[in-house]
């Protein structure tokens, strides 16, 4: 019996050492993370991931009929040169983009990427104007002088991919 108790105690002691080591490592890694500078605006949630598609009806059918997602109707946004369709995912959305007109930025994207692909990510911000001011001070290229109204009816801006590690980033007023 004493041997059994000794083994249990040794096992618990080993678990405590492992847990303490893990907690120490976890807490140390938190202190080593980069400090976020103070800002007048904050990033919010991921609003959507936009995907350029060469065939909008086929893409809608795939997400609705094959994957069983809730899919919106097609909405033209002539000021952006796109047709949009939203796919509800619960915690975020996919935005399917298809060219509207010859000068559509999506037409150019699809000429380079015939099968389509990820076009941009959209992140909500709590103060878009403050974000624009600070990003300009930090020499981040914004693709328009003023925000435009996006697919959700809210002001949006786009940040140049060269300043965002190759990703086109849309910021949307929350």
UniProtKB/TrEMBL annotation:
The keyword Isomerase applies. Residues 45-174 form the VOC domain. CDD domains: MMCE. One of its GO terms (biological process) is L-methylmalonyl-CoA metabolic process. Keywords: Cobalt, Isomerase, Metal-binding. GO terms for molecular function: metal ion binding; methylmalonyl-CoA epimerase activity. GO terms for cellular component: mitochondrion. The keyword Metal-binding applies. Its EC number is 5.1.99.1. InterPro entries: Glyas_Bleomycin-R_OHBP_Dase (IPR029068), MeMalonyl-CoA_epimerase (IPR017515), MMCE/EMCE_epimerase (IPR051785), VOC_core (IPR037523). It catalyses: (R)-methylmalonyl-CoA = (S)-methylmalonyl-CoA. Methylmalonyl-CoA epimerase involved in propionyl-CoA metabolism. Belongs to the methylmalonyl-CoA epimerase family. This is Methylmalonyl-CoA epimerase, mitochondrial. It comes from Gopherus agassizii (Agassiz's desert tortoise).
């Amino acid at each position: 019996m004493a041997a059994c108790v000794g083994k249990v105690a040794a096992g618990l002691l080993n678990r405590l050492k492992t847990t303490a080591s893990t907690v120490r490592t976890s807490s140390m890694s938190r202190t080593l993370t980069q400090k976020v500078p103070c800002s007048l605006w904050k990033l919010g949630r991921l609003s959507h991931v936009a995907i350029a598609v060469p065939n909008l009806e086929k893409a809608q059918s795939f997400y609705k009929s094959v994957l069983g997602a809730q899919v919106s109707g097609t909405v033209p946004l002539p000021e952006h040169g796109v047709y949009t369709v939203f796919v509800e995912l619960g915690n975020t959305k996919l935005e399917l983009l298809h060219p509207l007109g010859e000068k559509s930025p999506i037409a150019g994207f699809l000429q380079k990427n015939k099968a389509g692909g990820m076009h941009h990510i959209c992140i909500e911000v709590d103060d878009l104007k403050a974000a624009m001011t600070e990003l300009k001070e930090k020499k981040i290229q914004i693709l328009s002088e003023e925000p435009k109204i996006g697919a959700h009816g809210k002001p949006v801006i786009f940040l140049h991919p060269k300043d965002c590690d190759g990703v086109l980033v849309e910021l949307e007023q929350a």
